[in-house]
């Protein structure tokens, strides 16, 4: 069993019989960078039969300091609050949030919703069992 299947024990009855519903979040500087990012994630998801891509949420040319300006991020959080996402992938912690307070607030909210988070650059995978936070890396 690969590392993700072993580690990603998200206690959610809805997902036990189907693939993980995964959303991607990124902040990019340009449309060109966005296209490269989309191609990267399409390739990644083509190799994962246990993941179902919900959407790639991308804020283009927007600072990560002010959440009000990050329309795609806010849309992702709304999807999470509705229970439509099992896991979020973000290229890095700093792309997800530039504010430590906001980061902790969103992690707590996602934990309460039992939504796993994977930060690729740092190889940090947060997932939930019982009421505890678990974290570890994911290998390809």
Features:
alpha/beta, 5 helices, 140 residues, six-stranded mixed sheet, 35% helix, 27% strand
Structural account:
- The structure is a single chain.
- The protein is of the alpha/beta class.
- The chain has five helices and six strands.
- The protein has a six-stranded mixed β-sheet, with helices on both faces.
- About 25% of the residues are buried.
Summarize the structure.
By secondary structure, the chain is an alpha/beta fold. The chain has 5 helices and 6 strands; from the N terminus they run H-E-H-E-H-E-H-H-E-E-E. 35% of the residues lie in helices and 27% in strands.
Helical region count? 5
Radius of gyration: 14 Å
Q: Numbering strands along the chain, what is their spatial order in the largest sheet?
A: 2-1-3-4-5-6
Largest sheet: 6 strands, mixed
Computed structural class: alpha/beta
Question: Beta-strand level of the residues, as a percent range?
Answer: 25-35%
Mean residue pLDDT: 82
Number of strands: 6
What layout of secondary structure does this protein have?
Elements lengths: L2 H5 L12 E9 L2 H16 L4 E10 L10 H11 L5 E4 L2 H4 L3 H13 L3 E4 L4 E6 L2 E5 L4
Parallel strand pairs: 1-2, 1-3, 3-4
Antiparallel strand pairs: 4-5, 5-6
């Amino acid at each position: 069993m690969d590392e993700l299947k072993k580690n990603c024990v998200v206690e959610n009855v809805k997902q036990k019989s189907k693939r993980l519903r995964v959303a991607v979040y990124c902040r990019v500087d340009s449309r060109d960078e966005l296209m490269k990012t989309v191609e990267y994630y399409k390739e990644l998801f083509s190799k994962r039969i246990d993941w179902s891509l919900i959407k790639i949420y991308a804020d283009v040319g927007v600072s990560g300091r002010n959440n009000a300006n990050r329309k795609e991020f806010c849309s992702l959080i709304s999807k999470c609050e509705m229970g439509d996402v099992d896991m979020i992938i973000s290229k890095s912690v700093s792309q997800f949030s530039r504010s430590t307070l906001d980061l902790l607030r969103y992690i707590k909210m996602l934990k309460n919703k039992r939504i796993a988070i994977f930060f690729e650059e740092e190889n940090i995978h947060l997932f939930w069992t019982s009421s505890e936070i678990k974290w570890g890396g994911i290998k390809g």
